[in-house]
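[Q] Does anyone have a clean structure-token version of this?
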Amino acid sequence: MKTPTVAKTLLSALALMLLFEACQSSSASRQEEAATGFVPTLIHQPGAGDLMELKLSQVPGMTIAPVRQIQLSRVLEANGEISFDERQVATISSRVAGRIEKVMIARWDYVRKGQPIMLLYSPDFMTAEAEYLEAQETQKASSQPALGANGELAAQMVAAARRKLELLGFERADVDALREPSTVTVVRAPISGSIVESKVNRGSQVNPGDALFSVGTLDPIWITAHIYEDDLARVRVGQALEAVTTAYPNQTFSGVIARISPGINPDTHTMELRCQVRNPGLKLKPQMLARVRIVTQPGYALVVPQKALVFETDAYYAFVQVAANRYDRRKVAISSWNEQGYARVVSGLKAGDQVVSDESIQVNALWHLAHGETS
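[A] Here you go.
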């Protein structure tokens, strides 16, 4: 009779123990959720973004740091790329229909102005030359060419025929040396420079307007450098500069700022400087990289701790403390900075802003949680 009673007592005790353990587990779970799984409150602002209410104690390790304004050096440095000055690039086009008889130069050859670069066959040359020679004979046959009406007409015919030859690409010396018509003429370089592009081969047919060669002058040369928009006030057209390259690290090349772009790249918040640089020895080549140094007035830059920035999709964000326990999530454009652990702020923040530094990634996760998103 006592055995069932003892068994009943033991079962009751076991049930009480299990109930106690369940209560303990439930209590611990609620404490853990309160510490790490809470959902911050959002404050909706009409016509503006939401603010998030958050206390430092709710995110262990979370700290606040200021956005600092740092004085820049008097030397403004910028990276750039070397290119031809487009004003010093000439395209040699065919002015007649014909055939290429001989090519005397190749791509990247250096040529001097007036140097023969190609022989071109075309009946148009023979026709124009014959007209010029005939006009000369007519002028010689005219009596009193400087006074008579026939002499004036003949002189006009010679001038017109000569002009036609020049329009076909004949140099003045070539016209003066002309003695008989020929279907082949010499094509000469219009400027001194390097052959940038060649589109011809011996025996190729050409038509009026076909581009045959491009010739570019290497001195002076352009360097297109990029500066941040907040450095714009520090530069001006005509300002002197120096350029260095990895190819010639111990040599500096002198130049000036020739152009400042009228627009700003909205993605990088940079603008272009066109720097005209002297190129003694033609050492600088197009597509080489260069570092430009400009001595200017000191400027200022905003810097923020790198750990305050959260990268998401294709942009950086920072959480700015706008009031006690209230934070605004802002998109920030940055650039590199020479002080380790910091980034230069291009846009999105201002000096004196207080931003979440340590645990910014955790705060960003809470931001998404408050918006009903999963991060």
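[Q] Thanks! Anything notable?
[A] The chain has four domains: 36-71+301-370, 75-84+218-298, 95-122+183-215, 125-180.
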